[in-house]
Write a structure and sequence with these properties.
Elements: H1 4-23, H2 41-59, H3 78-96, E1 102-105, E2 110-113, H4 114-135, H5 144-154, H6 182-189, H7 198-202
Antiparallel strand pairs: 1-2
Length: 204
């Protein structure tokens, strides 16, 4: 059985590396556009931070409380806010993430077994680590086997209008080339353009 708790830890560690790198790149980097349409890097990291706290609360049995999922203003120190959210996540995920204990996920409108909920969070982290890396014009450093696991989860995300688009939790699926790697297919299934760069974004 796939160990999504460990995969989530690997992806979370990569987000830490990347966000800390952003912190050393100058304040203007937080206003850069990202592959997430309409979001700057600050918006993206604030979202990641909120999701980490929300999933940590869900692992503790408190996922139904809206305050745990609230996106906060982290502009004073985005990297510190993100680091603290990852630290808050590790222990409850290790304790409950591989179990059948239910995690209440308000954005998806229901509860899921811990192992399933952690797979969702892992996929979100893996793709957002790519988002941050591309925003910084660098490469994400996640092994191929991590992307293979992410792809298996991404293939299970529904493609219906309720799930995708402006009112859904995910962007519409993009065309996937036959030669796509597991990372590229994961990205297209989650609505990303694998060849996105800050330079192409600036041209539009």
């Amino acid at each position: 059985m796939t160990n999504f708790v460990e995969l989530d830890r690997i992806a979370a560690t990569e987000t830490l590396r990347l966000v800390r790198g952003a912190d050393t790149a100058g304040k203007e980097v937080w206003d850069r556009p990202t592959p997430c349409a309409g979001w700057t890097l600050l918006h993206l990291v604030a979202h990641m931070t909120a999701q980490n706290h929300g999933f940590a609360a869900a692992a503790r049995g408190e996922g139904g409380l809206p305050a745990h999922w609230r996106v906060r203003d982290i502009r004073v120190d985005p990297a510190l806010a993100h680091t603290e959210s990852v630290a808050a996540l590790i222990v409850p995920f290790a304790e409950a993430g591989g179990t059948e204990r239910e995690f209440v996920l308000p954005e998806l409108g229901r509860a899921f077994p811990g192992r399933v909920a952690v797979s969702f969070h892992f996929l979100d982290l893996a793709v957002h680590s790519w988002d941050v890396a591309r925003t910084l014009d660098t490469e994400v450093q996640l092994p191929d086997d991590v992307w293979e696991s992410a792809l298996r989860v991404a293939r299970r995300v529904p493609a219906d209008e309720q799930t995708r688009g402006p009112s859904g939790s995910f962007a519409p699926v993009r065309p996937t080339p036959a030669s796509a790697t597991p990372m590229e297919e994961t990205l297209t299934l989650l609505g990303r353009e694998p060849h996105w760069t800050p330079h192409t974004a600036a041209a539009h």
